[in-house]
Amino acid sequence: MGLANVLAGIAAGADRFDASFGGIGGCPYAPGATGNVCTEEIVHALDLMGYDTGVDLTRLLGASQRLPALIGHDVPSQLVKAGRRLDLHPLPADFEQIRARAQTRPPAG
Predict the structure, then answer these.
(1) Which pLDDT score is estimated for 86?
(2) Which of 7, 8, 17, 85 has the fewest beta carbons closer than 10 A?
(3) Is 27 tagged catalytic?
(4) b/e string for 3-33 if b means 16 or more Cβ within 10 A?
(5) Could you tell me which residues come within 8 angstroms of residue 98 by beta carbon, excluding any fewer than 6 positions away?
(6) What does the radius of gyration of the chain's CA atoms come to, in whole angstroms?
(7) For residue 87, pLDDT beyond 90
């Protein structure tokens, strides 16, 4: 839900968000609490959406992938575990045409 809240915040005009490297954090009084939304997941999603975050995602992801060894346990970040979407599945050749068509389509209803 954290990433969805970031996107809703952007739609409402927010341009700064609290996040946590690797998603580490949480509350010692709430077992199983996952902490904050992962910085690298916000940057990755915004990058895929065409936003310029000013963050070098390759370096951020490289650092976050070393985090589990440093802290001695896994981190909640799915991006750390799975990698970037475009590293796994490249965009189709006609992606920009598909995106443009989707953005100009009239609302349903």
Answers:
(1) 66
(2) 8
(3) yes
(4) beebeeeeeeeeeebebbbbbbbeeeeeeee
(5) 92
(6) 16
(7) no
Tens digit of each residue's pLDDT (9 = 90 or more) over 52-63: 999 999 999 889
Instruction: Give the residue extent of every domain in the chain.
Output: 2-104
Q: Token digits for 2?
A: 């954290």
Question: Which of the following is catalytic: 27, 33, 48, 82?
Answer: 27
Is 70 exceeded by the pLDDT of residue 32? no
Residue (of 56, 69, 54) closest to 22 by Cα position: 69
Cα gap 85→107, rounded to integer Å: 28
Among 70, 10, 79, which Cα is nearest to 38's? 79
